[in-house]
Specification:
This protein is an all-alpha fold and 161 residues long. It has 4 helices and no strands. Helix 2 packs antiparallel against helix 3. The protein is elongated. The model has no long low-confidence stretch (mean pLDDT 88).
Length: 161
């Protein structure tokens, strides 16, 4: 299949961007920093969503626990009153609620693992960002060197050595 004009345009634009970034390393560094910041924001947003989801799961588990207690007491009350059929139905309902609780616990555990993995990714990105911001590029160091040299030259000319 021959490349379409859109594929050719995209390839041409990518080549131009690559050439521009090679000739402007500061822009390439800024682009990489922006990419890291965007990735960090995305991961933090996902972490916030996971926290909300975990809070909701915990609320559901607490509600289920209350229902289990209530239906367990009802089952006991029905059994004590001799309503064995009703007691069994209540007991079966408790079992259903307990199964729902196990499913929620499993989901909460999986969410906790995902949260831990996500925190690790965020930590890694923070480390990368601090390393990048802590290190000046060769071009930045060279520009500082040249500026210092020019300043020294001006001082010599003005007699301020």
């Amino acid at each position: 299949m021959a490349p379409t004009w859109l594929d050719q345009l995209e390839r041409n634009l990518e080549e131009r961007l690559d050439a521009f970034l090679r000739s402007n390393p500061d822009q390439d560094r800024l682009l990489q920093e922006q990419h890291l910041q965007d990735r960090q924001r995305d991961l933090c947003r996902r972490r916030d969503q996971m926290q909300l989801q975990a809070r909701d799961l915990r609320r559901q588990l607490l509600s289920l626990a209350e229902q289990v207690q209530a239906w367990g007491a009802r089952s006991d009350k029905a059994r004590d009153a001799g309503a064995d059929d009703l007691a069994q139905r209540a007991k079966d309902h408790v079992s259903t609620l307990m199964n729902q609780g196990r499913v929620l616990w499993t989901e909460l555990d999986r969410l906790g693992q995902s949260f831990k993995d996500l925190d690790g990714q965020i930590s890694d990105l923070n480390q990368q960002a601090s390393q990048q911001s802590g290190q000046r590029s060769l071009d930045e160091d060279w520009a500082l060197f040249e500026a210092h040299q020019e300043l020294e030259e001006l001082r010599r000319r003005q007699g301020f050595s």
